[in-house]
Amino acid sequence: xxxxxxxxxxxxxxxxxxxxxxxxxxxxxxxxxxxxxxxxxxxxxxxxxxxxxxxxxxxxxxxxxxxxxxxxxxxxxxxxxxxxxxxxxxxxxxxxxxxxxxxxxxxxxxxxxxxxx
Amino acid sequence: xxxxxxxxxxxxxxxxxxxxxxxxxxxxxxxxxxxxxxxxxxxxxxxxxxxxxxxxxxxxxxxxxxxxxxxxxxxxxxxxxxxxxxxxxxxxxxxxxxxxxxxxxxxxxxxxx
Lengths: 117, 113
Description:
The complex is a heterodimer.
Chain A: E1 4-7, E2 10-13, E3 18-25, E4 31-37, E5 44-50, E6 53-57, E7 64-70, E8 73-79, E9 87-94, E10 107-108, E11 112-116
Parallel strand pairs in A: 2-11
Antiparallel strand pairs in A: 1-3, 3-8, 4-5, 4-9, 5-6, 7-8, 9-10, 9-11
Chain B: E1 3-7, E2 10-14, E3 19-26, E4 32-38, E5 44-50, E6 56-58, E7 64-68, E8 73-78, E9 87-94, E10 101-103, E11 107-112
Parallel strand pairs in B: 2-11
Antiparallel strand pairs in B: 1-3, 3-8, 4-5, 4-9, 6-7, 7-8, 9-10, 9-11
């Protein structure tokens, strides 16, 4: 596997279910990101991890719980979701979070299409 | 706070015609600017980026964009559209302290034969 992979690619769940999204990067990066892409809305940054430490939580509801056990893996644990949480969830990684004089390109996975019934 | 505005949620061109996708940014300091492309059922792929070197930036697949500070714009162009260019295009901005990006709402490009 190369780049950034996400599993599952599609997920349908009820509002009372608990599920997890998985992201894995094979690029040796230290920063990982979760984004939410809803129809007709801009891509929203949800969480950022840098060297396994969470550095950003963009006012995301607690029914979304991220986990970063190591620099290569990122999870998004889901519980008691609402229908409006249905969206494409994208994971990305970059060398690290800091930019400074150079930009660290973010590489995106293909996303998990989540449908909450 | 930084933000970008993409003018036109839908752009349709004929094959071989000029592609112009508009993006205006709002930032108090010179930002980094990006264009990403998203094909159906795929993640985002970086087309090109502006990081304060040359103002005319060339990217992949024949696309280029010009940073115009006076107009706070970073429009994406391609001289001749190809059917394979049909996709969703996103403009994004980030500051120079971290990699956190703010994306525009996207522009869907349709290419007619």
